[in-house]
């Protein structure tokens, strides 16, 4: 794998993890939104990631096997299909005839865990990127001495 492939792979992971943080933040921000543009409560969103081939098969991987390099991509952002959470609040302007309000099915604790794991994965991607840059700098310094 060359320097630029390592940078592109790390960058793709950073982009994917940033999207995960953005979606989880949006979910937390809308945890009590009872009206959306589509009508009804906000629907929790989730990021689906996939691997994408980064290059054609390269010769000379481990034990002489051909190797394929993959990067990470946001495949899609899906809406949760679970029904909304109903809470009894007859004084709420969005309460139904029985006095129940439909709230988004967002679990704030779950979203915070998603944000923490995405943040940790982002940090790991930055560490890998820093390592690739450091190795390249050291390789260049070997030739200059």
List the helices and strands and how they pair.
Elements: H1 3-29, E1 45-53, E2 70-79, E3 85-88, E4 100-103, H2 108-144
Antiparallel strand pairs: 1-2, 3-4
Helix pairs in contact: 1-2
Please explain how this structure is put together.
The longest helix is centred in the C-terminal third of the chain and has 37 residues, at 108-144. The chain is an alpha+beta fold. The two termini are 25 Å apart. Helix 1 packs antiparallel against helix 2 (108-144). The model has no long low-confidence stretch (mean pLDDT 87). The protein has one domain (3-144). The strands form two sheets. A two-stranded antiparallel sheet has the order 1-2. It is elongated, with a radius of gyration of 22 Å. The chain has helices at residues 3-29, 108-144; strands at 45-53, 70-79, 85-88, 100-103. The chain contains two helices and four strands, in the order H-E-E-E-E-H.
Summed up:
By secondary structure, this protein is of the alpha+beta class.
């Amino acid at each position: 794998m060359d320097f630029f492939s390592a940078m592109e792979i790390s960058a793709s992971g950073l982009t994917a993890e940033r999207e995960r943080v953005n979606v989880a933040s949006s979910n937390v921000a809308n945890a009590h939104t009872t009206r959306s543009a589509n009508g009804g409560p906000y629907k929790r969103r989730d990021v689906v990631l996939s691997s994408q081939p980064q290059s054609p098969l390269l010769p000379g991987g481990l034990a002489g096997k051909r190797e394929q390099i993959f990067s990470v991509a946001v495949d899609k952002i899906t809406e949760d299909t679970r029904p909304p959470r109903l809470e009894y609040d007859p004084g709420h302007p969005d309460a139904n005839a029985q006095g129940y309000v439909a709230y988004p099915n967002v679990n704030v604790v779950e979203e915070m865990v998603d944000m923490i794991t995405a943040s940790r994965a982002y940090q790991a991607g930055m560490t890998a990127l820093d390592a690739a840059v450091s190795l390249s700098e050291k390789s260049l310094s070997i030739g200059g001495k």
